[in-house]
Amino acid sequence: MTIDLTTPPPPAASFLDGLPRRIALTLPELRHVASLAGDAPLPFDLVEASGPDGLEGRLGQSRGSVEDQAYAAALASLHDADESLRRRGLITDEGIDPGLTGAIGLLATPTLALDLDVAAPGSQVKAWHRQAGGAVATLATSDGLVFELAWFAADQWPGELARVAAIPDDVALGESSVPEDIDLPFHLVDAIGEALRAGRSDLVPVLMSQHGDGIADGRAEPLDDSVAATAVGAIHTEGRGRLRVLAARVSDEEATDVGLVSWVLLADGWHSLSPHTSGAESRLRVRRTLPADLATELAPVLAQVIA
Predict the structure, then answer these.
(1) Do 249 and 257 form a contact (C-beta atoms < 8 A)?
(2) Closest listed residue to residue 132, CA positions, set 112, 115, 149
(3) How far apart are CA 307 and CA 303, in angstroms?
(4) What are the start-end ranges of the E strands in 121-268?
(5) For the chain: N or C, fewer Cβ within 10 A?
(6) Could you tell me which of 153, 62, 60 has the C-alpha nearest to residue 115?
(7) pLDDT attached to residue 3
């Protein structure tokens, strides 16, 4: 099987043919549709504990007790799922909308699974992308109350990945002290991060003098010591958000081979974090990226996962 996320999709026969179909569903509506679709499992565990914490933990969110109560109250205030779905025409006497049933089914029985977690100032989005054959279904939420369910042809996937990685409009970007492309010894990045977290910025020059050899830009040319020191520190201090994509090939309802893509949001936007080895040394390449680059970054990871 080959998944090509780098080739532009062919022109659609019409404007509407080229658009993914999207439906907003509340959590009760989503659970109700999954139940009617043969109790299809969703990408996350919805078995709640004795309070709202049960669901929250499984969605990867963390709230204080006041926010827990607000979440539980908001969930309880939502309309009856069956009634609201019928009012919207998604459920009729003939059954569930076929497209909706197909999307729920694809979420439950994929060949390839992507779990995305994106955090930026003031927002956090969790998304689940599931692919099988020539189709993709996605589910996303920013609050655990309302979910966007979408389905589309696999050739539209790169655009949907870029949409998940889009930086919110209210996040102001500026200049970064991290070069557009820099290659670093991993142990140096780790050590300086530990020093900064401990409030020991005075150790940075010492660490640079001991381990700072081999810092290079994208052309593999050594960087000036002061530029290199500032850049390594800025990787930690400029961080404003992160993007992580966990990719897995699914076999017999279990994830087998797994790959990871990780980005960090710095002062000027996204930068990819790519660990690699050079000889016996572990290194980290940090490279300026754009939301539209996510599919390209994922392509070699998916190739390894599905090989």
Answers:
(1) yes
(2) 112
(3) 6
(4) 123-132, 135-141, 146-153, 181-185, 216-217, 241-251, 254-266
(5) C
(6) 60
(7) 53
pTM of the predicted structure, to 2 decimals: 0.83
Transcribe 199-216 into DSSP letters.
T-GGGHHHHHHHH-TT-E
Asked if residue 112 lies in contact with residue 132, where contact means CB atoms within 8 angstroms, the answer is yes
Please tell me the predicted confidence (pLDDT) of residue 106: 95
CA distance linking residue 223 with residue 237, whole number of Å: 20
Write the CB contacts of 161 (distance below 8 Å, at least 6 apart in sequence). Answer: 5, 129, 294, 295, 298
d(CA 28, CA 82): 9
pLDDT score recorded for residue 260: 94
Give the Cα separation of 131 and 109 in Å (integer). 9
pLDDT at 4: 55
Sign of the C-alpha dihedral, residues 181, 187, 191, 194? positive
Partners of residue 305 on adjacent β-strands: none
Per-residue DSSP letters for 12-66? PSSTGGGSPEEEEEEHHHHHHHHHHTTSPPPSS-----SSTHHHHHHTT----HH
Enter the tokens of residue 113. Answer: 């699974």
pLDDT of res. 206: 85
How many CA atoms within 13 Å lie on the side-chain side of 236? Answer: 18
Classified as helix, coil or strand, 160 is: helix
One-letter amino acid for residue 261 of the chain: V
CB-based contact 32:85 (threshold 8 Å): yes
- Which two tokens mark 167? 């930086």
Reduced to 3 states (helix: H, G, I; strand: E, B; else coil), residue 198 is: coil
| Averaged pLDDT in 10-residue chunks for the chain of 307 residues | 53 55 94 93 62 45 63 82 93 90 94 94 93 94 93 93 94 92 88 89 83 67 77 91 94 71 96 89 92 94 85
Residues 6+ apart with CB under 8 A from 282: 185, 186, 187, 275, 276
Q: Using DSSP, state whether 191 is helix, strand or coil.
A: helix
